Amino acid sequence: MSLYTDYLEEIETRKSEGLHPKPIDDGALVAELISQIKEVGNPHREDSLKFFIYNTLPGTTSAAGVKAAFLKEIILGEAEVAEITPEFAFELLSHMKGGPSVEVLLDLALGQDADVAAQAAEVLKTQVFLYEADMERLEAAHKAGNPVAKDVLQSYAKAEFFTKLPDIDDEIKVVTYIAAEGDISTDLLSPGNQAHSRSDRELHGKCMISEAAQKEIEALKLQHPDKRVMLIAEKGTMGVGSSRMSGVNNVALWTGKQASPYVPFVNYAPVVAGTNGISPIFLTTVGVTGGIGLDLKNWVKKVDSDGKAILNNDGNPVLEQKYSVETGTVLKIDTKTKMLLDEDGKELVDVSSAFTPQKVEFMKAGSSYAVVFGKKLQTFAAETLGIEVPLVFAPAKEVSHEGQGLTAVEKIFNRNAVGSTPGKTLHAGSDVRVKVNIVGSQDTTGLMTSQELEAMAATVISPTVDGAYQSGCHTASVWDKKAQANIPRLMNFMNTFGLITARDPKGEYHAMTDVIHKVLNDITVDDWAIIIGGNSHTRMSKGVAFGANSGTVALALATGEATMPIPKSVKVTFTGTMQDHMDFRDVVHATQAQMLKQFGDNVFQGRIIEVHIGTLLADQAFTFTDWTAEMKAKASICISQDDTLIESLEIAKSRIQIMIDKGMENAAGTLQGLIDKADQRIAEIKSGEKPALSPDDTAKYFAEVVVDLDVIDEPMIADPDVNNEDVSKRYTHDTIRPVSYYGAQKKVDLGFVGSCMVHKGDMKIVAQMLKNLEKDQGKVEFKAPLVVAAPTYNIVDELKEEGDWAILQKYSGFEFDDLFPKGEARTEYENILYLERPGCNLCMGNQEKAAKGDTVLATSTRLFQGRVVEDAAEKKGKSLLASTPVVVLSAILGRTPSIEEYKAAIEGIDLTKFAPPLEKPAGARSAHF
Q1: Where are the beta strands (DSSP E) in 754-882?
Q2: Contact, 262 vs 563, CB < 8 A?
Q3: pLDDT tens for residues 758-811?
């Protein structure tokens, strides 16, 4: 059997599933195609030609390397293919976007044949994905007096790869399609339970919204061939929950433009919109593809004669429609006036925020990557030629207010800024290139990240990145055939690229399925760091972390940089005293509830939450920062006291050392380097040279939220409110209710303690509650299943040493076994305690799920429709979120507890040690409090 016949068999299988041939990334298969192309009478020659031309992946795949080499042979006359002329070979090279293709173009441009060199140079001038080795070749040739190299460098210095592209259209006609009412989670566009197929773009595209929706979109395209379909979140925000590159890819696949005729299923330039705009991290992903994200503002609050909002019986503002965007509505986007118009040209709303100079550049270039690499290439060319960089790209917006202090995020951005005006202090609103210190890639988007790295021709991690980690947590629950096929391949790629990986491709250390956010929280050893991670919950208790799409993660890994505006900040402080029977998770919920009560609107959305956490160590502080993704915040920053930060760094050091002891260190000594950086930071704090990060007294905030701890007197539950008459209020995190609201009568079908929101303390709470309840009642019986998944193996190991794991084992009816991991997802649950493998488990929703229609009470973060639990035909699934004690007790009772039952169950358990930071804590070395 040849690789080609295997490929034909795969094609037949895919055909039966309604799919086209899968794009080829294997160089050995391309070599077979070339052999058959060269053999004129070969019966497979015609198909081999089509596969070679139209179905071979570009970038740094092995397939791209073999293809580029053969095209070079054709150009030099060493091989002859009637259907591929030298001119056509150059065109094919121009669409391969870097790596082997650029190497070939440089070979030809710097070669001896003048005609070939001239043609190669013209193609080379259109390319932007050049790396250090490519640039060094050009620089060396220029210094040696090569005129072609000089010509190419002059073109790069002028940024002709960008300036010669056509401008975006003055007018873009769209036809609307309402994807859903209310906030649209990216799970609707790319369901988590289909994560295994994300790297197979055509297959994954079939999971977007529904088959019926896909048919409706196709019908709209046939009815309006001159228009682009605009996907809309009516009465809501588009793309909440995560950046989800696969979601944007799906929207582009169904509604966008084809990027290249020679690269299948890669589309760009989707148009998406929402009544309340686009979620910030999802909007970044839209920019990656050169797309457009509009804030429609088509529903507004109805006001009385005094200008005050009119409220309904539930206390929510009554909305009225300014203009209709019902499915099939034809609209126009005037990109010059930056207005949205109706079909007749009437102005509807200002959409200038979607057409900033930088965003327009992304649209013109077809992606934000092309602009990022283009700027880098232009700078290199100008420096090599000894000239000033010509002003081609829109200058970065630099906002500076004399005499105004800096918020914490402003300080971090100023410290890590690259290429900004020397000596200029930058405030919120500035566009900044920043150095990225820590990068995280998770396993359900990791394959896409590796594809992005291949597409941008990257082969090794940037030396400026302090540390990067590839997790295995999102696929930890079930080691099924999909995981077995994808995860080892991903780990091998990332390990070779230079990341610390959860699995060792050589099998020399135990597979670590630790939750990625927990690992990143440990390996972040500088409160001034910038972290980029392939997940919306990339929120750290040290530094500032941004959840990002798989492509932005790839860009950070390849370049060590990211580009973004400095967000405005909302300051969160605390007053009062935390009651002993409250868990810190309740403080988190109360922050959301009190903020909404104070301001009416969500002032956190799209901004940095600067939380003055003070006395909480990194693990519990992370509970707050993690939740801020659900508050729709851009990111969050913890302001800690010096002693607290030092203790958190010591904990981080010990955990990094465990990774080293387990054999996870790489040749570059990345993990030891992080320990050394932690030691350096501790020394700076102790000496007073550089205290813990804190804002200036004269910093300016968008808003200030004060959380009153005194009024938090009972546990709180975030409710998806699935039956709210206003669909825009369903599945949001804005409905926060005290446990007494449910009158000890809310039936609970399954409890889940796990996800990135819990830490070692939560596991100990479970054990102590079981002991309490047995002592009080003589035994413990579960009236609903309780699934417990520790976030990390370190926690399991420590619980075993301290005796708590034995208690959990005593009450469990199932305990994970790494020697025999589950091969299939659990579909039915008994009323027992399940000790699951460390990882995301139910929170991710891609492998394990509750039974359809269940009411789940969980410590996780996701209450989106269909995430943890799907709807049944007769009732909707509900994913309510609460603290660990509430979840455990509810699973035992089979219902939500009364406040009296709750207090009895947690008696003697020290849930949280938290007190608001004082103005000047005793013994603090920082002068900033």
Answers
A1: 786-789, 812-815, 833-836, 855-858, 878-881
A2: no
A3: 888 899 999 999 998 888 888 889 999 999 999 999 899 999 999 999 999 999
Closest CA to 294 of 356, 369, 352, 368: 352
For residues 701 and 864, which has the higher predicted lDDT (pLDDT)? 701
Cα separation values, 119 from 66, 75, 89, 107, 716, Å:
21, 10, 11, 12, 68
Q: What is the mean pLDDT of residues 294-299?
A: 95
CA 582 to chain centre: 32
Q: Which residue bears the tokens 């297959």? A: 203
Predicted local confidence at residue 924, as pLDDT: 33
Percent of the chain with pLDDT over 70: 98
Give me the residue label for tokens 């000894």.
386
Give bridge partners of residue 268 from the DSSP assignment.
257
Task: Compute the half-sphere exposure of residue 534: CA atoms within 13 Å on the CB side of its CA.
Answer: 30
Residue 405 main-chain phi, psi, to 5 deg: -70, 180
Helices (H), 305-432: 357-365, 368-385, 408-416
Alpha helices in 350-433 (DSSP H): 357-365, 368-385, 408-416
What φ, ψ does residue 454 adopt, rounded to 5°? -65, -40
Q: If 0-12 CB within 10 Å is exposed, 13-18 middle and 19+ buried, where does residue 86 land?
A: middle
Helices (H) and strands (E) in the chain, counts: 31, 33
Q: What is the predicted pLDDT for the residue at 874?
A: 87
The secondary structure of 710-779 as a DSSP string is GG--S-EEE---TT-SSGGGTT-S--EEEGGGGTT--B-SEEEE-STT--HHHHHHHHHHHHHHHHHHSS
87: buried, middle or exposed (CB in 10 Å: 19+, 13-18, 0-12)?
exposed
Sequence-distant (≥ 6) Cβ neighbours of residue 612 within 8 angstroms: 571, 572, 573, 574, 639, 916, 917
**Residue at token pair 């079939």:** 206
β-bridge partners, 439: 468, 532
Residue 56 has pLDDT above 60, yes or no: yes
Residue 286 CA to residue 270 CA, distance in Å, equals 7
CB-CB contact of 465 with 553 (8 Å):
no
- Tell me how far apart the alpha carbons of residues 202 and 387 are, in angstroms, rounded to a whole number: 46
| Averaged pLDDT, 705-724 | 92
* Dist CA 751 CA 833 (whole Å): 9
Query: In sequence order, what DSSP letters do the residues of 478-542 get, joined into one string?
Result: ---HHHHHHHHHHHHHHHHHT-EESS-TT--S------HHHHHHHH---TT-EEEESSTT---SS
DSSP letter at 303?
B
Structure tokens at 242: 């995560």
Q: One-letter amino acid identity for 175?
A: V
The label of the residue with tokens 């934000």 reads 368
Is 621 within 8 Å of 540 (Cβ atoms)?
Answer: no
CA distances from 891 to 454, 641, 782, 850 (A): 47, 37, 6, 13
Q: What is the C-alpha separation between 237 and 632, in angstroms, rounded?
A: 10
CA 509 to chain centre: 28
Strand order in the sheet with 608-614: 635-640, 608-614, 569-575, 703-708
| Chain Cα centroid distance, residue 756 | 15
- pLDDT for position 927: 22
277-281, 639-643, 724-728: least confident range: 724-728
Residue 751 token pair? 């409890």
Neighbour count for residue 908 (Cβ, 10 Å): 8
Tokens 């230079």 belong to residue: 498
Amino acid residing at 297: K
Over residues 97-114, the pLDDT tens digits come to 888 999 999 999 999 999
Residue 11 CA: distances (Å) to CA of 21, 53, 64, 84, 264: 5, 17, 20, 25, 15
